[in-house]
Fold these 2 entries.
Entry 1:
Amino acid sequence: MLNGKRILLIIGGGIAAFKALELIRLIRKAGGAVTPVVTRAGQEFVTPLSASALAADKVYSDLFDLTDEAEMGHIELSRSADLIVVAPATADLIAKMAGGQANDLASTVLMATDTPVLIAPAMNVRMWLHPANQRNIATLESDGIARIGPDEGDMACGEFGPGRMAEPQAILEEILARLATGPLAGKHIVVTSGPTHEPIDPVRYIANRSSGAQGTAIAEALVRLGAKVTFVTGPATAPLPNGVEVIPVETAQQMLKVVEVSMPADAAIFAAAVADWHVTKEAKGKIKKDKSGQPPALKLAENPDILATIARKRKDRPKLVIGFAAETDDVIANATAKRKRKRCDWIVANDVSPETGIMGGDENAVTIIDAKGAESWPRASKRDVARRLAERIAETLS
Ligand code: CTP
């Protein structure tokens, strides 16, 4: 629930603006309060009166409204909320945010705030895919602006593709994930995820098939229970989790460094499929074919074991260190041995034989191995496995 939390909702000018009214209703139903800011273009789609009636609050729309400034200046307005949500975030609003413009109330509030911001983009598919918009989105991502959507589907303009605003219910869940207090509130948890890429030369690398889906699901489940999550990920294909600090890395050695500087943590979960080896000497230039037809010989060296390094550490060892074991034979026996060898508290073991469809798939069937023994969970979606794991972690850390 959102008891006592205030959301400043900026409604931009797009056909999806009507969904913002439903969002106001849902936030209030969840116990939150909403202060709407409707941009000039937004007013072409929703009337300030309807936003105000649903929010049961004053609607702000103009930067130079002296009555507003006397009641609550734009600086104060920007800081009075627990979260600022921009829905719909139009291409224009996104460009203003990325460029640091402050020429109307919405953009000025966004520039003046130190409150977390969540945007729900909505625009035509071509606009969404336009390099300028993609550049702006990348800028906002690196500025720490959270984003939900856009979804893919039929659009009001008759085209199909990414650009539809996320559904109000999904936006509400995202808000809940950020603001709801939970059993993991105040806990810091580091999660590694995805594959690592080990370079051979500037254009080639050694990789594996991990999608990062389980890591993303775990990070999101932890956030939903209130944890602060640092997400250290190799080049994954699964979407990044929302509401977490994402630190992208390429290689196992980079991943270890980032994990070490991310300490201290209450728990660390090693869901990454770290490459076991790296090429000893990465070629400076692209390796060319030998005229004799002789293929190049790659010399490999073992990568540092990130899980074992953190689990062994004395000083700032997290209270709970969790490893994964991706096995194809004797899953429980191998994973139990791995737990001992790597000195972690739990191992989440799974069978990644190709016929299980687990690696790269949507489901997982895991066995949790701890000091007491093995507990097998029924096959479920990676999201459900993550939720159950997060609950078990919350119980253990409380
Ligand atoms: N792991 C790690 N650093 C590595 C290798 C693995 O942190 N260099 C972590 C993984 O994130 C996972 C666990 O160790 O949590 C087990 O990884 P796995 O690849 O299944 O086991 P290996 O250590 O590679 O053992 P083996 O190859 O014998 O199965």
Entry 2:
Amino acid sequence: MSKLPAISPRVFSGMQPTGALHLGNYLGALVQWVKMQDTHECIYCVVDMHAITQARSVWGGPEELRNAIRMSTAAYMAAGVDTKKSIIFNQSQVAAHAELAWVFNCIARMGWLNRMTQFKEKAGKDRENASTGLFIYPNLMAADILTYRATHVPVGEDQKQHLELARDIAQKFNNDFHDEIVAEGFADGDFFPLCEPVITGPATRVMSLRDGSRKMSKSEPSEMSRINLTDDADAISNKVRKARTDPDALPSEPKGLEGRPEAQNLVGIYAALSGTTPEAVLKDFGGAQFGKFKPALADLAVEKIGPIGAEMNRLLGDPAEIDRILADGSARAREIAAPVIDTVKDIVGLLRT
Ligand code: AMP
Ligand code: TRP
């Protein structure tokens, strides 16, 4: 019989350490991560094993990867994740993720993975040449979450499909091993929870500053398309002022933004950074030209993002301290993960001697 406690509310989320984190990562995910610390037990992961699913040219190489892991850790902390309340660690330090991912590789179906739009986007035209790791990426993501039997996952819009897959995997595991799960003492047969995506706020999908039809992303070649958390005040201000817009004045209500993706994006960013809504922003700026709105947005972005970059730089000045924080987080994560992966092995019949 398993000694695991019943499922209780727990938050898990992660980001890949490839390149600098940007405003989309901040507004789509980090802001929510910080908020949830006050109401939930939270575990935040730097998913380094996911980072190596793409070509080496994308993540750079070992030295770049180590630096990027430390940079992501610093970004989580500078944005407000508090290691006294929450766990921060890097994925590869807790072997249970890889172990559970293997079991899930045997649960998930080819057909399910074939439908994943992110694989199609990242693999591009040359699918034969994509790594097998990129194809089973969503299984590892499901393992990240379910290693802790987490119930809530704060992410941006683009991760919705992956989280649906995580629920399908949890459900199929619970079904396939129903009798064994009950025999382990989980009377209702629910070993893994069906995790809920937490996709909220006015900026769950921040768009490129150069093209309102594309997501802000680290892979976009133009630096002007995104605000990095490490940008200084001049860079932030310059990028906002040069953001693409249309020639019209701002409308006084959100429905006036329909068909104006660039305007909609900038209003959404303003609302998210100031903690209000697009309605409230347009109450203040309805009728104004971008010549007036952009400087106000630039000032707000400098005020909110500037200090995060400064704090990241301070933290990165002491890499040994960052490594110590990750080591401590990994030890805490391992403690939660150990009884879960042991019970999975017992349920499946992978003999523990
Ligand atoms: P990634 O950089 O792909 O590892 O994403 C890390 C987190 O940031 C995930 O929760 C994503 O959904 C979120 N995210 C990435 N880009 C954006 C964006 N442009 N808008 C909103 N959220 C985003
Ligand atoms: N796939 C996510 C992204 O690219 C990162 C990720 C990996 C993640 N494992 C996760 C997010 C677990 C939430 C929960 O953004």
